[in-house]
Design a protein that fits this description.
- The protein has 259 residues and is of the alpha/beta class.
- Helix content is 47%, strand content 15%.
- The longest helix is centred in the middle third of the chain and has 16 residues.
- The radius of gyration is 18 Å and the shape is globular.
- The two termini are 33 Å apart.
Length: 259
């Protein structure tokens, strides 16, 4: 079985090459606007974690660590060996991106982490356990609602109340696989990004939001203290789903980061 990528690196075009890792949750309006910016400014190679898992590449009977996934991705990227690239990642993708940067110290030029976590502290463990409990116990529409109240700010939910309501109706009959949700969240808790990031000397940009209820703002602050050659930008709002809610601002900061 093959890992699924979209796009490709280029050597003939002047634009920089970008490897993109996005989380499984795509949000209410998705990430199309954000990805279109990347496509327009850079040569984009995106790893598709959803399609890769659906293809059976990884054993779903156990927890697949983010480092193990990153190793498989690194092997699959042999065809682009020697090409210089930058990594942009969001949420769960921050674990994959950090490990890929670690494995490609000679070819990875910079690392951008959007809404990252540092390590599994007490509060973060409790949040993830609550999500698993909700997946097990709540009726589908209530579970979806609980997730979006965690991922988005109250102001954003109120602004798009009609769209959120319709989204819940459209997805209320979809199967909620709490076993796979628990394994995915455990892989996040098992990943200590700070431990790996402090070893990386390449330029790093951290972007988070003051009102992120999941990967709370202190995670980015801790990563900034732990690592060198690192810049932290904390947005005033936007929740966790910044590639949707603050796409325009992300694009400005990424473009100014000199990729």
């Amino acid at each position: 079985d093959k890992l699924v990528f979209h796009g490709s690196f280029e050597t003939k075009r002047e634009q920089s090459n970008v490897l993109l890792f996005l989380p499984k949750t795509k949000g209410l309006f998705g990430t199309k606007k954000f990805k279109n910016f990347i496509k327009n400014e850079f040569n984009l190679l995106e790893y598709d974690d959803v399609q890769t898992e659906d293809s059976g590449c990884f054993d779903k009977s156990c927890v697949t660590s983010l480092e193990h996934k990153a190793s498989a991705i690194n092997i699959a990227m042999e065809k682009w060996k020697g090409i210089k690239f930058h990594i942009i990642c969001h949420s769960t993708g921050c674990g994959l991106g950090t490990f890929l940067a670690k494995k490609n110290k000679n070819s990875c030029r910079s690392l951008i982490l959007i809404s990252p976590w540092n390590r599994a502290d007490y509060d973060f463990i409790a949040l993830q356990k609550k999500r698993v409990e909700n997946a097990k116990k709540l009726e589908n529409s209530l579970f979806i609602k609980s997730e979006y109240h965690l991922l988005y700010s109250s102001e954003y939910i109120k602004k798009f109340e009609t769209q959120f309501h319709q989204y819940i109706l459209n997805n209320k009959d979809k199967n909620v696989d709490y076993i796979q949700i628990e394994k995915r969240l455990q892989s996040i808790l098992d990943c200590d990004i700070g431990k790996e990031l402090r070893k990386l000397m390449l330029p790093k940009l951290l972007i988070n939001s003051l009102d992120d209820k999941l990967m709370k703002v202190h995670h980015g602050q801790e990563l900034k203290k732990l690592s060198t050659n690192t810049k932290l930008i904390s947005l005033d709002n936007g929740g966790h789903m910044l590639t949707e809610t603050r796409a325009d601002d992300l694009n400005i900061y990424i473009k100014s980061f000199q990729l």
